[in-house]
Amino acid sequence: MELELDGRRLARALEDHLARWRERTGIAVEVWALPAGDVPRAVAETVLLTVREALANVERHSGAATVAVALTAGRRGLRLTISDDGFGFEHRTAGRGLRVMRAGFAGIGGRLTVNGVPGGGTTVRGEVPRAALDRAALDGATAREERPLSGPGEDVLPPAG
Hints:
Pfam families: HATPase_c
Radius of gyration: 17 Å
Order of helices and strands: HEHEEHEEH
Organism: Actinomadura luzonensis
Structural class: alpha+beta
Keywords: Kinase, Transferase, Two-component regulatory system
Protein name: Histidine kinase/HSP90-like ATPase domain-containing protein
Largest sheet: 5 strands, mixed
Helix content: 40-55%
Strand content: 15-25%
């Protein structure tokens, strides 16, 4: 998968993806903020997939010249904002991509909103409260503890769930 974390921090994975996307599309990317620390893996994966989907929408539909990305994680939780200066849109129906992004954030205890203004660009905002981040961290630690150890040459899959 293009956005695999491979042991990298979320900020580094985002920087790498945004640089590749900018080179491929020619759309300018402004990075306003990235977290200094890391977040639970399930949250990081959801953020990466959301950024990927939002950027795909920008590329396909927006006509934008610039995209701005900000991601912060702190005492109050995680906040993601992706804004473009494209055509914007009216909120008559949510396409598959928007539904997937919303479902991803809901799955980690967060919320995602999309605000498009015709002629004024689109902003995607995701929030995950601190309590949900803490639960995700605990769930990730529990999953690692429950995983059986494998011997040399053995492949052991983590428990389903």
